[in-house]
Amino acid sequence: MFSFFRRGAAVATDQASHDDLAKASQTGACTIIDVREPNEFAAGRVPGARNMPLSRFNPAALPQDKPIILICQAGGRSARALSACRAAGLADARHYKPGTGGWIAKGSPIEK
User: Fold this and answer.
1) DSSP 8-state secondary structure symbol assigned to residue 71
2) Residues 44, 110: contact at Cβ < 8 Å?
3) What mean pLDDT do residues 32-38 have?
4) What architecture does CATH give domain 3-105?
């Protein structure tokens, strides 16, 4: 189970951990949404991520069947997307603050 979605546990953060993102990438238990622009997304992304650029981001268009992990290059755009999700009433979303750069720095794989 993902640490930030445990039932009955109080969660004080809107951030997904590296382990949460790795598990989501491997199992598909969460939907990973990359909010970078298409050219950035095409250059390399977390395996299994879907592209929904922040420039056209619409929380209503997010899949509703699983929790969401938002990611960008360095955490700023995913934080703005998370704010939009919260304003739209979506509680099952978190963001990966280190971004794709942090993912790569940890030695995690990317796909192109």
Assistant:
1) E
2) yes
3) 98
4) 3-Layer(aba) Sandwich (3.40)
